[in-house]
Automatic annotation (TrEMBL):
Gene3D superfamilies for the chain: Ribosomal protein S11
GO biological process: translation
Single Gene Ontology MF annotation: structural constituent of ribosome
Protein species of origin: Nitzschia inconspicua
Superkingdom, taxonomy of origin: Eukaryota
GO cellular component terms listed in the entry, alphabetical order: ribonucleoprotein complex; ribosome
InterPro entries: Ribosomal_uS11_sf
Gene name tied to this protein: rps11
Protein name: 30S ribosomal protein S11
Record's signal peptide: none
Record keywords: Mitochondrion, Ribonucleoprotein, Ribosomal protein
Length: 189
């Protein structure tokens, strides 16, 4: 009798779990369909009749389509002699720009990446209150060893949806030019 009870409990638990997973998948598919409808409406350039409330799904928790769309792009670039941080919206309009000179670093100090990045990120949090909990795409240019540091610091107060890493400098650099041998000539007296 005890064995049949445990088997029955296991089966009911599995069925409950599968029902829960199916319900989550249904919600996910509904949200995707709503997002497709929203994007089709956006493609037809009918901005006046575009309201997110029409395309939002309503369940136990009211979910909004804004959860799926990236609103801002944060771009961190390591240049040869500088470090730059850009914040722009999706259309490419520049909202904020900071370089390591804007945090009082000059000369060879600008190449010290750890100091420059930490100061730039703290300045970003002070100035860019509009980022809030909006979904953000993070683009990293030539950030080889510091990507984990940057992502960890930005995750604390930003909702990062997408991370793209662009490394344009090769790891070992270009091949060196072949050295020409010097020709030795005998000197006659």
């Amino acid at each position: 009798m005890n064995l049949s009870n445990t088997l029955f409990n296991n089966l009911t638990n599995r069925l409950k779990l599968e029902a829960l997973l199916l319900q989550e998948e249904k919600l996910y598919v509904e949200n995707l369909l709503n997002q497709v409808a929203y994007l089709k409406k956006l493609k037809t350039n009918d901005y006046k009749n575009l309201g997110l409330q029409k395309f939002a799904t309503y369940t136990n928790k009211e979910k909004n389509l804004q959860d799926f769309i990236v609103v801002y792009i944060v771009n961190i670039s390591f240049l040869k002699a500088n470090t730059a941080l850009h914040v722009s919206d999706i259309q490419g309009n520049l909202k904020l720009f900071f370089s390591s000179g804007s945090v009082d670093l000059a000369g060879k100090q600008k190449k010290k990446r750890r100091i420059a990045v930490s100061k730039l990120i703290s300045l970003l949090f002070k100035k860019a209150s509009f980022l809030g909990k909006n979904p953000v795409a993070l683009h990293l240019n030539n950030v080889n060893f510091y990507k984990n540091l940057i992502i960890r610091k930005l995750k604390r107060s930003l909702y990062i949806k997408v991370i793209k890493i662009f490394n344009q400098t090769p790891y070992n650099g270009c091949r060196k030019k072949k050295l020409r041998r010097k020709k030795y000539t005998k000197k006659f007296k």
